[in-house]
Amino acid sequence: MVRLITHNLLACHAKGCNSNNFPLPFSNVQIEIREAEFNPEFLKAFLPKIEWKALVDTAKQLGDMSLPLEQPEMMDDDFLKSFHHVLLEIHVEEGVMTCPNCKHEYPISNGIPNMLLAEHEIG
Questions:
Q1: pLDDT tens sequence across 10-40
Q2: Is 6 exposed, middle or buried (0-12, 13-18, 19+ CB in 10 A)?
Q3: Domains of the chain as residue ranges with CATH
Q4: Closest CA to 56 of 113, 4, 10
Q5: Maximum Cα–Cα distance across the chain
């Protein structure tokens, strides 16, 4: 399933596409909110692995404005709960991710992204 924790790690890998290939903007999405267990320690440990601006921009694109523009130094419960919600509870069920560079489209169906490339697209 495409959650923003996964999306934040995905880049286009089409042949010759190695710049401006992250993040992959969504279009025509259907999202579902599913509760997930809140684990503050996991969130604190995972935070350094996140590309913050990409996460904030993607959350906004999906209609969630709860994250601050800059990654906060103080991680209070309110921040961690917003971070948890954006990262783990927003599920993209249907839609398309499109590379900003080469415009390759990666469809999402039943929550599963198709990241496979045709033979001629493999680099």
A1: 999 898 898 999 999 999 999 999 999 999 9
A2: middle
A3: 2-114 (2.20.25.10)
A4: 4
A5: 48
